[in-house]
Amino acid sequence: MRQHPKAAHFARAAGIVGLAVLGSASASTSSVFVDATATHVPSAPELHALDAAFVDVDQDGDLDVILAVEGDVNRLYINDGKARLTWRQGVFGKVAHDTEHVLSADFNRDGIADVMFIAEDDQIHQLFFGDGKGGFTDVSDRLPARSEGNGFAIGDVNGDRFSDIALGNSGKGARNFLWLSDPAKPGYFIDATRTHLPHVNDATQDIALADLDDDGDLDMVVANEVPPNRLLLNDGRGRFTDASGRMVLSVPLHTREVHVFDATNDGKPDILFLNLTSNAGQRERDPQARLLVNDGRGRFIDESAKRLPANDFSAWGGIVVDFNDDKHPDLIVGAIEVPGFNPLQARAYANDGKGYFKDVTAEVMPRTVVGRSWSMAVGDLNGDGKDDVFIGGWGTQARLLLRK
């Protein structure tokens, strides 16, 4: 993330930091969510928490929260089982990085969740192996290269049942990476970029891995800051070829996130792009979210005009979640006013079950959920069987929404 100030580095004491109250959770009028930020999340109103992952790091049966922090040290919030989060300092070191995103997988096949962060400006990606007790060992030297990373995805792309890494890069002459797990040495990686990915220069901001052609392997959608976005098909052995012609987009996009899910309930994946006017500068492109619907013949057609609410805000992040329990995937979309980079209320879009979405923000989103919303995480934090949502924020408080 560039073109606006980096986070200040805050002085911190060692040990555990307690909770602080941020306003009143009672201001919510939502029939779906309670904004539990005030009572459940450490106060950090100026933190750049750009992404979050829900992971049970201490194997106590509940999901903890790991934050990717830009311009500061990445954070671990420990869950007490009721979604009350406490910051455990020092778990991911003491050095600040320009971290953009975080994901988790069991890379070394020991049955314990590991964590990977990617960074942009300082190009220091980090890999930590978990110990199952909430502690981590830094093994970042096992990653094959440094880069100006902005988005990544983890999945088994070559069918060997090991987790591989697709890493999206930006900057002059940037090329995306594909790192395959080494089955002979679990927890190490083989750089297969030159042999397995098309040789193109992209300004990539996000990557999604999903089976887009129904052949049983993971294909790749590449979301770019500079058009075009790309669709890459997998041959089943982790070798990808460009099939971007299968995506029919109506306008060039500055995309920040991509989500693949079955929006239309036909058993086939569709593609959602979340977009910006510009990277917090002047207006350059149409920021309308775009839904590309699978036509059943391997092509993805832009049907946004009839399926999505119109938007003129920029969206750096969002999440797919069934927030009304009708078994259909709904959307929560972050909103920021650009030009201006001004905080706005996050939006809620309800799916009618056939892939037509209605803006139900007034009924679903608490009025308090205003900020520069960034990437989000979804999962059941308080053990009630319903998915909760954590919303990252750039220089505004990250927020926790618990289902009622």
Automatic annotation (TrEMBL):
Keyword match Signal: yes
UniProt KW keywords: Signal
Lineage: Bacteria, Pseudomonadati, Pseudomonadota, Gammaproteobacteria, Steroidobacterales
One Pfam family this sequence matches: FG-GAP_3
Segments forming a coiled coil: none
Signal peptide: 1-27
Transmembrane segments: none
InterPro entries: FG-GAP, Integrin_alpha_N
The protein's name in its UniProt record: VCBS repeat-containing protein
